[in-house]
Design brief:
The structure holds 2 protein chains of 2 kinds. By secondary structure, chain A is an alpha/beta fold. Helices cover 25% and strands 23% of the residues of chain A. About 1% of the residues of chain A have low confidence. Chain B is 38% helix and 20% strand. The chains are: A alpha/beta, B alpha+beta.
């Protein structure tokens, strides 16, 4: 075995001490230190980001401790116990009465195990492993899995998006009844948006799912999210790209969000995904799917979908702030960016000093689109002079398209054409709800805690 | 070998306990006195029953770091409980609800934990590794407790030997359970996340009394830091008990040390009696290999019963399962603990695992009175094809629960042929205990991937060592030599004012140890009885007051007055304290009192002395030495007598 494996994660003085006493990772040892302390346990691999000074020991009680290597005066080796970390694998049962569902993995944690190198959690994925940890899945479908990528969601990019769209298309052609995509949650809404554009008019549900608490913890939302997702994919009548995640933070029901209107709204809550400016498509639990609206695209048996895997990478997004200077925009123009999405203040505004830069962008043929950083509401550039002036400078308002969605759509539109008029017509022609004609009044509900009627509501319904 | 029979509690001798191989160890939990919780910034020590919102969770077992499932975790998953958390905004944030990752560990709490480790002469770890200890009962919303070893080893002196300590950890406290009925368990979350230390001893206590005594020493030792919480629930213990041939059983949540002897006695008896029962079963040829049992749905056979629990169940559309245990006739009334029988072991399992929480949840053929009618028993026996050697147990519930119940009955009965199942058991007020859950193993530990390891530097250890109190057994020895009376000794050794005591009896004060000890121990108690907030007293007040005393500015009696003044007004105003009387003042006052008394006709002349003293002391309290006045009055009264008045 290579040294790297034998001494996983150890270096410097600690590595020297291990070599001196002939101890390796997984050695079962008795240690004595110069202070007279004595410990017994198994040497564990060390995270590479931890310091180089300590040896990690798992004691008989299951607890770990770190011992300063420079204090170690002797090590007696009693044996070796290698961790055999394996999610119990059981063959996923086949039931010919159940729909075939395909689960694509891109990363994220549905089932997972510990990575000793980084101390982080890495996913396990085969149908057998998934069945071993979430046996309820077999109640809903015949599951097939395919690992497309193993990246954290922040590392998703054009290559992965196009690859995922192509993989989905292939499965639809093969007659799958529904698709589930396991995805890290941070950029799930970006991927949901681009897939909404790349796969249009899908005959089957395409459901994105992830977890806010990794599946190595008993309270994880991963299992329930996955159960909801396979149920939505296999059984629901909603043939759209959707995000399926917890409704409340309680383990009770999930929500199906339209892929173009959903956004991650809290860095850590389970109920982080919300439909913005509209209401979700449906509620879902283990037993039923309850649509909240009727204007969704229905499941079909034909194969008349559109695969449009286009992407222009040189598109940027600017989150406007007061005191922004024109060089922010200029630098993008000078770097050859073909499109810029601005998240402007209020109804979609930036300050006057930016105007010359915006004019330069127009002259250079850079597509500039305006969204609102308030997230809720429409860009309305006619109300104030500022808005009208900006439109004269070529800035195009995008109605109530979410900034991230506008960004993904502009990448997609510029991937198809460099004719700015064509791009504009693609941008402003909604494909699946990324802009809507009207905002229902219950599309904006950010309840304010502390107000008596809100508290009364919270006390009656589980969060 | 199992011919010994347990005697009543009071008659058991140390030799009897030695004979059964009684061994017991302690896991002592102690809340730390910190302002905030361990991994978030919520206030610690604020309790309230009201709540603003509820959250529902379910727990799933996950793999351990070494790739194993924990038995307890699987058991809890079997129970399929809805876990409800009641949260109050003031005491719980999104961290406790597992919707926000942990913040850095509370350094104040970590310092206290290290300090306590030093009192055990334990090895303080060089690097803290925070682990997740799985608890699938729902008592912690994450499904695990964040915990870390702060020290390993150590010992405390006891009798003529030492009791050794395995380890000590710092951890977050759990929720308070408010109810657990059927498939629904409800928790209050205010206590959740408070810093706690757990000290684990080796099983070196040999009688129930020893367990209690050692626990008392451990508790006093941690209290001597002055940095732990006191009061109901602030210190809790789990007691591990085993006998020869038995297994380590953990009795959880023992609320008071006084209860320990009877609880450990009953647990030792339970194990011993279960081992005797295994022997008896084996003698009849019933072993794990030959064990036979089966069950049937008997709802139809007894559908007309008048036995209310079953009649109600059938009325509600529930199912009744009947388990036949071959060769078990009579064993269901085999005594396990005081007034407790083997059928209770089975009923407990059914209650916890099948969630059949309404009692009785089983009936059985060893106790047929007041249950089914005789004819119904006869019909059942016929249907189940029972011989005189076999036992029947009935369990009822909805399809899933009745099935789970019947399976658990068989599992527990078979375990009787193997030995003592590893369990955690809950303490009952009558000194017996009941099944709580399968004893978790080291498989339930998992490293916390949210927090990196934390080195504990030698500098930090040095600073803490400098502030740590002297160990109570060393103090006790010293104070005994100084003549501190026995009734004050223990309390003084634990007192947070022990350093004040030592300062005041040394140069330059050189005060009387007995007086200082009694003032330090007794005065705060008296002041508390007056409703004063004695927790506000610090070393500074004692030093200030005793300085006044030692310089002669106040007398002994004014020490208490000065402390009282501080607690009422927040300061000690010297000018308002009673100053010592001059001899002249005393003479005048005594003379006046003698005159007064001689103008009164006394109903009880023999009380004359007390009355005169009362008159004088009412006036001069705190300003004179009562003993001196007493001598003056006595001698005056005596001379009056001899003058024939």
């Amino acid at each position: 075995m290579e040294d790297k494996e034998l001494f996983k994660g150890y270096s410097s003085i600690t590595l020297d001490v291990m070599k001196k006493w002939g101890a390796f990772v997984w050695s079962d040892i008795d240690v004595e230190t110069s202070e007279g302390s004595k410990y017994s346990g198994i040497i564990l691999p060390r995270s590479e980001t931890a310091d180089k000074l300590h040896l990690v020991l798992k004691m008989a009680t299951g607890y770990n401790i770190g011992i300063r290597a420079d204090k170690i005066s002797s090590i007696v080796i009693k044996g070796r116990k290698v961790a055999n970390y394996k999610i119990p694998e059981k063959a996923f049962p086949y039931d010919k009465g159940k729909p075939r569902v395909k689960l694509f993995g891109t990363g994220g944690t549905i089932a997972s195990r510990l990575d000793y190198r980084t101390g982080a959690v890495i996913p396990a994925f085969s149908p057998g492993e998934l069945y071993g940890s979430v046996p309820e899945l077999a109640d809903y479908c015949n599951l097939e899995t395919e690992k497309l990528y193993g990246v954290f969601s922040e590392n998703m990019g054009p290559e992965q998006w196009i690859g995922t769209a192509n993989a989905i298309a292939k499965e639809i052609e093969k007659g799958v009844k529904g698709i589930v995509i396991g995805h890290g949650t941070d950029t799930m809404h970006h991927t949901a948006a681009i897939l909404s554009f790349m796969i249009q008019n899908s005959p089957v549900p395409i459901v994105m799912v992830g977890s806010q608490r990794s599946s190595d913890r008993p309270s994880s939302d991963a299992a329930l999210n996955l159960i909801h997702a396979v149920k939505a994919a296999g059984e629901s009548d909603i043939a759209e790209v959707m995000v399926c995640m917890f409704g409340p933070t309680s383990d009770s029901y999930g929500l199906l969000h339209r892929g173009t209107r959903v956004r991650k709204m809290h860095s850590s809550y389970r109920s982080t995904f919300r439909t913005i400016g509209d209401i979700p498509l449906a509620m879902i639990d283990r037993n039923k799917i309850s649509p909240l609206r009727q204007d969704y695209k229905r499941r079909r048996t034909d194969n008349n979908f559109i695969l449009a895997p286009y992407f222009e990478e040189r598109v940027g997004m600017v989150y406007y702030y007061p005191n922004m200077m024109p060089d922010m925009i200029d630098s993008m123009i000078d770097s050859g960016y073909k499109g810029i999405v601005i998240a402007g203040t209020g109804l979609g505004h930036v300050n006057k000093p930016l105007y010359p830069a915006l004019k330069r962008a127009k002259d250079k043929g850079v597509a500039v689109y305006m969204t609102v950083q308030t997230l809720w509401g429409y860009v309305q550039m006619y109300v104030y002079e500022t808005g009208r002036e900006m439109m004269d400078l070529g800035v195009v308002p995008t109605a109530n398209m979410l900034p991230e969605v506008a960004y993904m759509k502009l990448c997609w539109a510029l991937g198809q054409s460099s004719d700015l008029e064509k791009v504009k017509s693609i941008m402003l022609d909604p494909i699946n709800g990324e802009t809507t004609d009207r905002e229902p009044s219950n599309g904006y509900l950010v309840y304010q805690g502390g107000i008596p009627e809100v508290e009364e509501f919270i006390s009656k319904f589980r969060k | 070998m199992y011919d010994f029979e347990f005697k009543p509690f009071d008659e058991m001798t140390p030799e009897d306990y030695a004979r059964v191989g009684f061994m017991s160890g302690l896991e002592v939990h102690q809340q730390l006195l910190t302002d905030q919780k361990l991994f978030c910034r919520c206030p610690a020590g604020k309790y309230q029953k009201s709540y603003n919102a509820e959250i529902l969770r379910h727990m799933r077992p996950t793999l351990s770091e070494l790739g194993e499932y924990d038995g307890t975790a699987l058991m809890e998953f079997k129970t399929k409980k809805d876990i409800i958390y009641r949260i109050h905004y003031d005491t719980v944030c999104t961290y406790e609800m597992d919707d926000t990752p942990p913040f850095q560990i509370n350094e104040q709490a970590l310092d206290i934990a290290i300090e306590v480790g030093m009192l055990y002469d334990a090895y303080i770890v060089d690097e803290l590794h925070i682990a997740r200890k799985q608890y699938l009962d729902g008592s912690i919303p994450t499904g695990f407790q964040r915990t870390a070893i702060t020290s390993v080893g150590g010992r405390i002196p006891y009798k003529d030997r030492y009791i050794n300590i395995i380890q000590m950890s710092i951890e977050e406290d759990s929720c308070r359970e408010t109810s657990d009925v059927g498939h629904r368990r409800v928790y209050l979350t205010d206590r959740l996340g408070m810093p706690l230390i757990e000290t684990v001893t080796y099983p070196e206590m040999k009688t129930p009394q020893e367990v209690a005594e050692v626990n008392q020493i451990l508790r006093r030792l941690v209290r001597s830091t002055g940095r732990v919480r006191t009061g109901v629930g602030a210190g809790r213990e789990d007691v591990n008990v085993s006998v020869t041939g038995g297994t380590r059983i953990e009795i959880k949540g023992v609320p008071s040390i006084k209860r320990i002897p009877l609880l450990t006695y009953n647990e030792a008896m339970r194990q011993w009696n279960l081992l005797r029962m295994r022997q008896s079963l084996a003698n009849k040829g019933i072993t794990p290999d030959t064990f036979k049992a089966n069950f049937e749905d008997v709802t139809k056979i007894i559908k007309k019963t008048h036995f209310k629990p079953i009649a109600d169940a059938i009325h509600n559309g529930f199912k009744v399962n009947c388990v036949k245990l071959d060769g078990f006739a009579g064993y269901l009334k085999w005594q396990t603990q005081t007034d407790t029988y083997f059928s209770k072991e089975i009923s407990d399992r059914v209650r916890v695992i099948a969630c059949l929480t309404t009692l009785p949840n089983i009936i059985h053929s060893d106790n047929i009175s007041e249950t089914l009618a005789s004819a119904e028993w006869v019909a059942l026996k016929k249907f189940m094809n029972v011989t005189a050697d076999d036992a029947l147990i009935l369990v009822w519930g909805d399809d899933a629960d009745a099935l789970m119940g019947a399976n658990e009955i068989i599992i527990r009965a078979r375990e009787a042929t193997i030995g003592i199942p590893s369990e955690t058991r809950q303490a009952y007020p009558d000194g017996t205990n009941g099944f709580e859950r399968i004893l978790p193993g080291p498989e339930r530990m998992y490293p916390d991937t949210d927090l990196p390891p934390k080195p504990i530097t030698d500098e930090r250890k040095k600073l803490i060592r400098a502030r740590a109190p002297e160990q109570i057994w060393i103090r006790t020895q010293k104070y005994t030599k100084l003549g501190v009376p026995d009734d004050l000794l223990e309390e003084l050794a634990v007192s947070r004012f022990a350093p004040s005591f030592e300062l005041l009896i040394a140069e330059p004060f050189n005060l009387d140890p007995v007086f200082v000890a009694s003032a330090i121990i007794q005065y705060p108690k008296r002041l508390r009885r007056r409703g004063l907030p004695i927790e506000k007293l610090t070393h500074d007040e004692f030093e200030k007051v005793f300085k006044l005393y030692s310089s002669g500015k106040i007398l002994k009696d004014a020490v208490l007055i000065a402390l009282d003044m501080f607690l009422r007004n927040g300061e000690i105003d010297e000018s308002k304290l009673p100053s010592p009387c001059t001899d002249e003042e005393i003479n005048i006052r005594v003379g006046m009192a003698m005159k007064q008394i001689n103008h009164i006709t006394l109903i009880n002349p023999e009380k004359k002395y007390e009355i005169v003293m009362g008159i004088i002391m009412d006036d001069l309290r705190g300003r004179v030495d009562g003993k001196m006045v007493s001598e003056m009055v006595s001698s005056l009264l005596n001379s009056e007598m001899s003058n024939g008045r």
